[in-house]
Amino acid sequence: MTTKNQPLRNQIALVAGATRGAGRAIAVELGRAGATVYVTGRSTRAKRSPMNRPETIEETAELVTEAGGKGIAVCMDHTKEEDVVALFNQIKSEQQGRLDVLVNDLWGGDPLTEWGKGFWETPLANGLLIQKQAVHSHIMTAYYAAPLMVERKAGLIVEITDGVGYHYRGNLYYSLAKIGVSHLAQGMAADLKPHGVTALAVTPGFLRSEAMLEYFGVQEENWRDAAEQDIHFLQSETPYFVAQGIAALAADPQVAEKSGQLLSSWSLSDDYGFIDIDGRSPHWGRYAEENGF
User: Cβ(28)–Cβ(62) under 8 Å?
Assistant: First the structure.
């Protein structure tokens, strides 16, 4: 491949939380653009995480390499500081301290979130664990990533969130986590701007992840059948839609102009001109506005 086709060749990326869903797709698209991508997660071929899903971090690394990059799988828990320190020591050692892109896609809150109940009606421990897994982990990872970028006066930190803006998302603990990482991006952008480092947040639309396909009892080949259960699913997008947007951001020499912004897969599609891998151009923002939600 040419350098034009692989604008991230020789760049080093870390996708924290890359076992499945958007994280896996983002890692693959960064690899397709030529990057060496460290992919982290808790699910391995030897042991599943509490999410109890079949996807593994080793598979993600292999997909990155198949796409044209270099995938490096690291099994770890981003809520454990010793694991995070060990990860960045590994990157420092193997990449001479270079890190160009960090994507924080850590979540793990689906089994802990109970929709349709007041916050006082669900276990407090679960609500606090969501903050630990989906916010504290982001802060800790960015804390150790930032010095590598500040040293070189270059770098991009992407926070994966859900939703553009600060509206309530239907569950207190879920909402706190997603709004928390959006504000984390804005705060980091302010702190890092004098040092030449960019931080921003990106949301997908209705994400057609492996878990969502399983929830509706369909596969990618017949995903439209799920519209019988939820008509809004017809507006869904594959994880590769938002992933292409993040790869485009990472390759954009003017990305600093977007620092501190809360972006979306559909707005990035408008800006950079890509379409989803299923040939569609979903626009969840326009659909939500037209339907009043």
Answer: no
What pLDDT does 292 receive?
Answer: 81
Which of these, 183, 201, 179, 202, lies nearest to 265 by C-alpha position? 202
pLDDT of residue 123: 98
Whole-number pLDDT of residue 245: 98
Positions marked active-site: 174
Within 8 A by CB and 6+ apart from 103, the residues are: 13, 14, 15, 16, 23, 26, 27, 30, 158, 160, 246
Question: For 32, what's the count of Cα atoms within 13 Å in the CB-facing half-sphere?
Answer: 16
Q: Round to whole Å and give the CA distance between 253 and 255.
A: 6
Report how far residue 88's alpha carbon sits from residue 226's, in angstroms, rounded to the nearest whole number: 42
For the record, the structure tokens of 277 come out as 């891998």
For range 48-58, the mean pLDDT: 87
pTM (2 d.p.): 0.96
Residue pair 127/114 in contact by the 8 Å Cβ criterion: no
Q: What is the pLDDT of residues 223-279, one digit of tens each?
A: 999 999 999 999 999 999 999 999 999 999 999 999 999 999 999 999 999 999 999
